[in-house]
Amino acid sequence: MAKIIGAIGTSHIPAIGKAIAGNLQETPYWKNFFDGYKPIHKWLENNQPDVVVVFYNDHGLDFFIDKKPTFAIGAAASYQNSDEGWGIKTIPEAKGDEDMSWHICNELVDDEFDITICQELRVDHGLTVPLQLMWPGNNYSHLKVIPVAINCEQHPMPSPKRCFDLGRSIGKAIESYDSDQKVLVLGTGGLSHQLEGERAGFINKEFDLMCMDKLVYDPQDILGYSIRDLVEIAGAQGPELNMWLSMRGTLLGDIKQLHHNYTIPISNTGAGTLLLEQK
Ligand code: DHB
Ligand code: FE
Question: How many angstroms separate the CA atoms of 184 and 206, rounded?
């Protein structure tokens, strides 16, 4: 059966794409942030996943406010990126794994998750920036990617518990897929941030660090928040924590935290990085 070997929580903001394009990794503003990926690069080199399931949110590239699936999954042979207007370079297409995607979709619907299945899907910075962070130089052509988009842009949004349960269901689906592929799961976005309005720039470091801590060994303790709670405590875009909760939900076995990092502020966010290994 396919095996989830580990999971990573990471920021996805467009400013990171610009920093990579400008080669700014060693500058004072960026150094601590990019240093947080060095242990991850080493781990990826040693563990070589075949498939990457990416929980991200589409900020308006393919799902605009006129059509907004709560949960959407890619089932395409490849995924393109397009210019979103942030001034970041587009990246080469990511290859898909249609068979594994359809297996996950079938299992999810059987498990009563009513997902949107996308045989064509353009992917935005929520997915592309993390790929660039994990595989510098866009060195991901050997990998297959399965995008899972969660609505974090337009209310009503799914609850933290629902997103964790989605992750659980996807974890079970992967572990029942007949192949010997090694799977890595990414949860992207967050942590606390607010991009607009009177509280623009709002960050809650204490809450971010508590969530990163609880997420590892006691995720149940942070599943009781509502979306309104997250907006109040972690900012209007605080619900991006949901992608981290889905990521954690996929890990059904014993896990070990191998690395974490937190840099504040990176653009308007508390930028967390977390590497979990599953036995
Ligand atoms: C920023 C944060 C985001 O989550 C995002 O999607 C885009 C920009 C920011 O802080 O700049
Ligand atoms: Fe975002």
Answer: 28
